[in-house]
Write a structure and sequence with these properties.
Helix 3 links the parallel strand 3 and strand 4. This protein is about 45% helix and about 15% strand. The strands form two sheets. Strands 9-8-7-6-10-11-12 form a seven-stranded mixed β-sheet. Helix 6 packs across helix 7 and helix 13 crosses helix 14. The chain is α/β, with parallel strands linked by helices. The two termini are about 35 Å apart.
Length: about 425
């Protein structure tokens, strides 16, 4: 099956998603018709976004919104702002959201959005005008019962507030459930910021049980120190894990005895970088990915583990905090090395799970305390980890294939029960 993905296309996320989908569909013996339906996005839109810049120039940006599936409920997925956003990337991310929501068995389909821009070069006013015009362009696709956006790369709760307000101006009333990841004052949920990192910690704790490891005996390297990686590092350190390495785009820091994560966060806040931290030594960021460790958590971007470097990994457990950090071709190498992979559509599903909680709370108009959010998140993540690993053992497949098979089975079941509208 991997031969169907040429090496030169290894980093195309949509083709990688297709390879993994086909592998799972074949194992399930899914019929051709259902495979065709589930493999293609249900709906996608490209919008031109004219924005008046602060210097008086008119610039036109390109934005996308893709709904991969709404078979099990409204679409759910973030919006990212980045100069390298592409339609293929958004398609892949939307499909991963479909499978992710199905793996943790929450009643959402999959969607994703993106705008080609460099937010680091734009003022707050320019970003607001961009966001509002983009929202107006996709407004017929979104809504509490249709498609619920959320923050993603380079977007945050402020961007969600702008989207919510723009939508409210169009429909004529405040509708908090149109987005998740909002400020608390506008219907956000407690525990949302920590949710993805907390989910990574929970499934890693479950994986440790299979290896007979305790957190205090577990050495962890985390690639990425943003919302996902930073929260995972903080929570894992509090749980007793020994975080020996943190890798960022501009450097890496290492301490064999464990880094003081709170002190490292303070150092980065003061200096803008993790480099030069007194509590560790600076090492090459590429070499840091291959430190001898028990757990590696890639929690930054896609395609960091490829056919070129997968053989160099020296971890026992790979917990994918980012979306698509491992290419499809690299999957086979990791299997040969007997690395226990917690795939992204399970490992980082804590974020969408608490987004679901936020949506429920907004619709009820009744909000939960943080202990309740965290306990319900743990219940879902532990149950989903058990379901995926049991599925893998039953069908004698790796965890990623098991997660895809479980997800395809659930979405396909919903499609069959609903029938075909004609």
């Amino acid at each position: 099956m991997l031969a169907t993905l040429p090496l030169e296309q290894e980093k195309n996320p949509w083709l990688a998603a297709e390879v993994r989908f086909n592998r799972a569909a074949e194992k399930l013996k899914m019929d051709d018709g259902m495979r065709k339906v589930l493999s293609m996005p249900a709906r996608e839109i490209t919008v031109s976004i004219p924005v008046m810049l602060d210097d008086g120039r008119l610039e036109v940006f390109i934005g996308y919104r893709v709904q991969h599936s709404i078979a099990r409920g409204p679409g759910k997925g973030g919006i990212r702002y980045a100069p390298d956003v592409s339609l293929d990337e958004v398609r892949a991310l939307a499909s991963w959201m479909t499978w992710k929501c199905a793996v943790v068995n929450i009643p959402f389909g999959g969607a994703k959005g993106g705008v080609i821009c460099n937010p680091n070069l734009m003022s707050d006013n320019e970003l607001e005008r961009l966001t509002r015009r983009y929202t107006a362009g996709i407004i017929e696709m979104i809504g509490p019962e249709r498609d619920i956006p959320a923050p993603d790369m380079n977007t945050n709760e402020r961007v969600m507030a702008w989207i919510m307000d723009t939508y409210a101006m169009h429909v004529g009333h405040a509708t908090t459930a149109v987005v998740t990841g909002k400020p608390m004052e506008l219907g956000g949920s407690r525990g949302r910021k920590e949710a993805t990192g907390r989910g990574c910690m929970i499934v890693t704790l479950e994986a440790l049980k299979k290896f007979g490891l305790r957190p205090e005996d577990t050495r962890v390297v985390i690639q990425g120190f943003g919302n996902v990686g930073g929260m995972a590092a903080r929570l894992m350190a509090r749980a007793g894990f020994r975080i020996i390495g943190i890798v960022e785009y501009n450097g890496a820091v290492y301490n064999r005895n464990g880094l003081d994560i709170e002190a490292l966060m303070l150092h980065r806040q003061e200096t803008g970088s993790i480099v030069g931290f007194d509590g560790g030594e600076d090492i090459d960021r590429h070499e840091a990915m291959f430190l001898d460790c028990d757990v590696l958590v890639p929690a930054a971007t896609e395609n960091v583990i490829t056919s070129e470097n997968a053989a160099n990994l020296r971890c026992r457990i790979l917990c994918e905090g980012a979306n698509g950090p491992t290419t499809a071709i690299a999957d086979e190498i990791l299997a040969d090395k007997k690395i226990f992979v917690i795939p992204d559509i399970l490992a980082n599903a804590g974020g969408v799970t608490v987004s679901y909680f936020e949506w429920v709370q907004d619709r009820q108009g009744f909000f939960w305390n943080e202990d309740l959010v965290n306990s319900r998140l743990e219940e879902i993540m532990v149950g989903s980890f058990g379901a995926v690993t049991a599925y893998g053992e039953k069908h004698r497949v790796d965890n990623r294939t098991a997660a895809y098979m479980l997800a395809l089975d659930r979405v396909g079941c919903a499609m069959r029960l609903r029938g075909l509208y004609a």
